[in-house]
Amino acid sequence: MYAYDAIDRELVETRVAEFREQVARRVSGELTEEQFRPLRLMNGLYLQLHAYMLRVAVPYGVLSSAQMRKLAHIARRYDRGYGHFTTRQNIQYNWPKLEETPDILAELAEVEMHAIQTSGNCIRNTTADQFAGAAADEVDDPRIWSEIIRQWSTFHPEFSFLPRKFKIAVTGAQKDRAAIKVHDIGIVIVRNDAGELGFQMWAGGGQGRTPMIAKLIRGFVAERDLLSYLEAMLRVYNRHGRRDNKYKARIKILVHELGADEYARQVEAEWARIREGVLSLPQAEIDRIRAAFDEPPFERFEGDSRAFHGKRFEDRGFQRWVRSNVKPHKKPGYAIANISLKPVGGIPGDATADQMDAVADFADRWSFGEVRVAHEQNLVLPHVRQDDLYGLWLALGAVDLDTPNIGLLGDIIACPGLDYCSLANARSIPLSQALSERFGDLDRLHDIGEISLNISGCINACGHHHVGNIGILGVDKKGEEFYQITLGGRADEDAAVGRIVGRAFDAHETVDAVETIVETYVAQRRDGERFIDTLERTGPAPFKEALYGAD
Amino acid sequence: MSLNVITANRLNDGVVIFLTGNGWSTDLQQAETAEGKEATAALLTRAEAEPGVAVGPYEIAVERIGEELRPLRYRERLRVSGPSVDYLKPQAA
């Protein structure tokens, strides 16, 4: 893992000291709330419905076991014993006290963590494929490039007050596990025809009230040019982005209104001016950062473990967990183990302090001390020996973390909704709990197969409802909660925005409506066909008819 | 004429509070009520005079059911009662 250098350390420690003083001045009355608000937001501290909320960055979703233990400690010492992992690979604490926040930040700094770039109109914490450095289909490790972007973007003076927040995602494989096409900039690591490593640059994706899929801006940017090209992309946005209208301020609107070709033309012109300047990446610096992500000391195996396959045959519960939660690793004899934070009837993304400590222990024991956070609000142990998977599964079961539902209907993405969020119009969590209970039968869940169900409590779309195969958006109708359903969204390499099927339902009806959608799919599907494939083959008509009757 | 109270979040911990005749309380039932625009505006002015205690004061419409005050909007009812989900209990698998 990347370790802070002296500059990183000083930067974070200085920020903690500065914020400590700002909090003291607010509490003493020297600062008004109006003066203090932008300062606390720069440190990830929001004021939500019932309390403050502290959003802590997990850069590109990578955590060491020591960092995970610190997150557990903070949950226990300063909060109510749990934390919430988000769709931006961050963790949020829902109940910190204002005067204790500088202490929390100081504790985070001890393990090279902070809350910088988790709020404000800056370049936010970069997200990446949670399988980075482990995936069998990876062209290159996205952590290297995400770390380079982190160093460039943190406190970038020119981009500290952009028209709106700005989100970058990186995937190292053609299979997109980082939802790059619904980010302001999406980066795909590729090789060109000459075999050189580089980047496909996408821009203008996003969700919220105007969901859009990113457009390809350049098919190949060489390694040395990554930062200069990003700088050019940001500079054109910063120059033209709509500061007069918050709802039109994101780059997706600029790319849409200018047109992708014109935006790309301006980026290329800007890039031509700056590409040979200070942002040209020295190979030595790329090599230095790459070395920080060197492979752990893997054992050499010739192929798959026979003992592992034997256990799958013997134990049906283990087999079910392996089928959904275990993914192929680039090294023979190893696997990627996904830990679902979506127990039946649970709160998506929430983990107790004890569970976080347990995951840290499992990482030390079985995954070289590494943990990842997935944007689907789950955790990952990236490097587990196949021979150790059975022991891991048993250990996960002892702390209620063995739910075998990754990628299935119970793996619901949900924002905190109106239970916590001051922006929300409706609750997301109780609906996700009711749906996960309705589909709680694991045999049925596995029979239904791959399907994503995403819920947002408002149009800001933190629950990624636009790109759920089934998306649910909470709306307020005369003070009552209703839910609008969309179908056909997807966040993968074929990203698409779902379409509204018809009138909204109340909470109870919504659970039945999802059941109707699933039953319609099961009746319509052909052998081995996923929900999204059936929907794309049939179109929405049979689903609409099942929900609302024939026209 | 609608009945209103003033609510805010407490500076130290963000907890939901209500303006009473004698400072602030976490109990809606202690809140001072105002009828009509002028009386509500006067209450809000009083609330805004204490920025060191309460953050972002604003008015909400309430109704009286028997002796009890109850916010009209669902959002405010949720602010009064806290999250509707049981977050402290370890989740069952």
Automatic annotation (TrEMBL), chain A:
Domain of life assignment: Bacteria
Keywords: 4Fe-4S, Iron, Iron-sulfur, Metal-binding, Oxidoreductase
Keyword Iron-sulfur: yes
One Pfam family named in its UniProt record: NIR_SIR_ferr
Residue stretches making up the Nitrite/sulphite reductase 4Fe-4S domain: 119-272, 454-547
GO molecular function, one term: 4 iron, 4 sulfur cluster binding
GO cellular component: sulfite reductase complex (NADPH)
Domain Nitrite/Sulfite reductase ferredoxin-like, chain residue ranges per copy: 52-111, 347-398
Biological process terms in GO annotation: sulfate assimilation
Entry-linked InterPro entries: NiRdtase/SiRdtase_haem-b_fer, Nit/Sulf_reduc_fer-like_dom_sf, NO2/SO3_Rdtase_4Fe4S_dom, NO2/SO3_Rdtase_4Fe4S_prot, NO2/SO3_Rdtase_4Fe4S_sf
Cofactor: [4Fe-4S] cluster; siroheme
Keyword Iron attributed: yes
PANTHER family: SULFITE REDUCTASE [NADPH] SUBUNIT BETA, SULFITE REDUCTASE [NADPH] SUBUNIT BETA-RELATED
Full protein name: Sulfite reductase
Organism: Minwuia thermotolerans
Source organism phylogeny: Bacteria, Pseudomonadati, Pseudomonadota, Alphaproteobacteria, Minwuiales
Automatic annotation (TrEMBL), chain B:
Upper classification of the organism: Bacteria, Pseudomonadati, Pseudomonadota, Alphaproteobacteria, Minwuiales
InterPro entries according to UniProt: DUF2849
Record-given protein name: DUF2849 domain-containing protein
